[in-house]
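Internal tracking record. Fields below are filled automatically when a chain is submitted to the structure queue. Please do not edit lines marked as system-generated. If the sequence contains nonstandard residues, flag them in the REMARKS field before resubmitting.
Queue: standard
Priority: normal
Entity type: single polypeptide chain
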Amino acid sequence: MFDLTGLTTLKLPFHAASVLKLSSIENVCVSMPELGSAPRLILGGGSNLVVLEPEFDGVVLRPEIKCFEVTESGSDIFLEVGAGHQWHDIVMQTLERGWFGLENLALIPGWMGAAPVQNIGAYGVELKDHCYRVKLYDFEEEAVIELDASELKFGYRHSILKETPDRFLVLTVTLKLSTVPNPRVGYGAIADELEKQNLKSSDPRDIAKAVMSIRQSKLPDPADTPNVGSFFKNPVVRTDVAERLKAEFPDMPTYPDGAQTKIAAGWMIDHLGLKGHQVGGFSVHDRQALVLTNDGSGNANELRELVALIRSSVKATFGLSLAVEPTQLGQFNRT
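SYSTEM-GENERATED OUTPUT FOLLOWS
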């Protein structure tokens, strides 16, 4: 067994029967057919994986593909990036080159390959807003294919890739950016942070600085404090349900989302007095209630207990069910 605990940011014990590093598309095409029916798990940056069972009797795939191909068309920039790049590194590289669009997504941990699977998002922007195309290995067809963004069924922290996690391996992501700034500062505390630091709301590089400052003030660095970022999704409900809750809880933050409304899960957990609550080595972070942290001694059963407490408390008070955001290896509810 290979010890892969250090490759995940939550630092729960994780051992796998085998590990396969994939450095190129050619490498993928040669290696994948040889896997046969062996169980497989794709592991990139490890910042979105919760390991609830310590041993995986299969092969862990590490998509370490690196490429950086640029095509320009007027003010549009089409950037094809390998799955093995760090997401934040790509954000900063694009801003340095004067290619704009990703500034609100600065400092999100993880690798590029996970971005379209999860449809990562922050501060009013999602990956789907700048995804043009994804190149994939299709395990079912045993072939490399390409899907346009319109075929990926992007939703809130969701895509067709997440619906069928055993079918596709992301190889590259093509982003559509622009040399013309399109600042988006109306979400969260971005405008206040820009003013506080005397930064320009018209400059995407300054927006990225503000976003990074906000994230650093609220979120623990997984390199120092083991965590997987936001642990729960914000519930999306019918507008009439949101209005009823808002009438009962006037301070509850809500965000229109098309014909529905998004409810702030972190606020609900905080309202219930669970910030800082601890079960063994796991705690609700004292500055951001959406984040669960591991002091290094936590085990899966303690995490299960804490998650069950949060979910049942939210259900009892608000009548809403919280869905876990990160990918899980194993189950929270054992039968």
